[in-house]
Amino acid sequence: MTRESTLRFGAQTDEVTSLLRIVNMVRTGEAATRPEIGRVTGLGRGVVTQRVDQAIEMGFLADGEYGPSSGGRAPRTLRFRSEQGRIIVCALGALHIRVGIASLDGDIVEHAHRAWDIAHGPAQTIDTALEMLDELLARHEDVPVWGVAVGIPGPVDFETGRPVAPPIMPGWNGFDVRRRFEQRFDAPTWVDNDVNLLAFSERSHRHEEALDLIFCKVGSGIGAGLLSHGRIHRGANGAAGDIGHVRVRDSETVCRCGKIGCLEAEAGGWALVRDAEQAVSEGAGGALARLVESGEQITPEAISLAAVDGDALAISLIQRSARLVGESIAALVNMFNPAVIVIGGAVSAAGEVFLAEVRQRVYELSLPLATRDLSIVRSHGDEKEPLRGGAEMVREQLFETTFPRWFAEGRPLIRDVMPEAS
Q: 288 phi and psi, to 5 degrees?
């Protein structure tokens, strides 16, 4: 589309609005044929035909199969052309990197995983992630990247894409994560907290538009993603849900963030490893002691598995962690009143050993009305969940938040989408 036609097209507000709506209706499955579009929008047949033809010409829609007949001629279905672009997702954790390629409908086409310590710093970590992505992309046809999602295990200023004093990420404070990915892929990039990506993934599974949900991740660290009426609540500066650094009563333990008595320092995965190693050094027996004797390291996953297998030390560590996490979640329940709490992360792999304690503390400490319809469940535990969540976050930003700014170009451009370029 030429600049002149773009400007002329952009000036026609009603036309633009109805065209955007039609594309999104087909994309989300709200309507699949021209007659359905007419019934939902109230637009006449001629207007619908004109808008659909424009959307096809711009590359957003294409004709599909014939739909069922209601007595006359069978209507031709429409489909959103999800193959015309791809989404790149990079989910960084404390001890791993996950990367993936997704289509515009959110399906993960391919993914890869590598053990990695986030403390290596931003330059090395992002270089490694980009190498992993290059390996994936080399196995696929050259399709334009429409958006990039990056998840990191720490607080993020969502507007700038920069980490803000992340406790377990030395050297990352203020680093321009977005810029590296935009330079590499020439596509708009959004950087978010890793737990928010998991909350997005849960939303996509549940297909509920007005979902009120807390996703609490108890891994090496602890954090929460908050969904309010289906929308991520990040807070004024992106720090919403950082419950890992809520103070635990009577605790004097020094946290990795430098403060005293944080929940993470008492109940996070790294705290459980610390306490398990101390107990073993003081003579505790069982599965964790045998692990050390064999020369292997104790990990949060190992503690969770040992608890499931009935190891007394592991069970005591997991249950104490769950009680403390449950107390903090209870405060969120009273303030936020979610319908669902989803527990994920390596420590939650202990299953009911962990969940039962969380449920007990939440129901003991929360208001009856706030827990009347509350369910507390474990996450799917699929390693692709953060990748699906990242793709979902990009889809929301592209097709709900910024679509009117770039759709006349036919594909999202950094200058049209990102705040600093607008």
A: -70, -35
157 DSSP β-pair partners? 162
In this prediction, residue 71 carries a pLDDT of 60
Looking at every residue in the chain, the average pLDDT score rounds to 92
Could you tell me the pTM of the whole model?
Answer: 0.91
- Cβ(389)–Cβ(201) under 8 Å? yes
pLDDT confidence tier of residue 70, bands split at 50, 70 and 90: low
The whole-number average pLDDT for the span 402-408 is 92
b (16+ CB within 10 A) / e for 374-400: bebebbeeeebbbbbbbbbbbbbbbbe
DSSP per-residue codes, 121-164: -HHHHHHHHHHHHHHHHTTS----EEEEEEEESS-EETTTTEE-
Amino acid at residue number 280 = V
Q: Work out the percent of the chain whose per-residue pLDDT is above 70.
A: 95
149 confidence band (pLDDT: 50, 70, 90): very high
Measure the CA–CA gap between 71 and 75, rounded to whole angstroms: 11
CB 401 within 8 A of CB 13: no
Is 68 or 378 the better-scoring residue by pLDDT?
A: 378
Exposure letters 320-337 (e unless 16+ CB within 10 A, then b)? bbbbbbbbbbbebbeebb
**Six token digits for residue 134:** 């290059």
Are 228 and 201 in contact by the 8 Å Cβ rule? The answer is no
Which domains are present in the chain? 3-80 (1.10.10.10), 84-200+384-421 (3.30.420.40), 207-378 (3.30.420.40)
Strand partners, 271: none
Report which of 137, 16, 28 is spatially closest to residue 88, judged by C-alpha positions. 137
Alpha-carbon gap, residue 362 to 415, rounded angstroms: 46
The Cα angle at residue 173 between residues 299 and 237, in degrees rounded to 5:
100
Contact 215, 379 (CB under 8 A): yes
Cα 120 to the center of its chain, rounded Å: 23
Q: Is 120 exposed, middle or buried (0-12, 13-18, 19+ CB in 10 A)?
A: middle
Query: Residue 420: which pLDDT band, with cuts at 50, 70 and 90?
Result: low
Neighbours of 160 (CB within 10 A): 17
pLDDT in tens, 183-200: 999 999 999 999 999 999
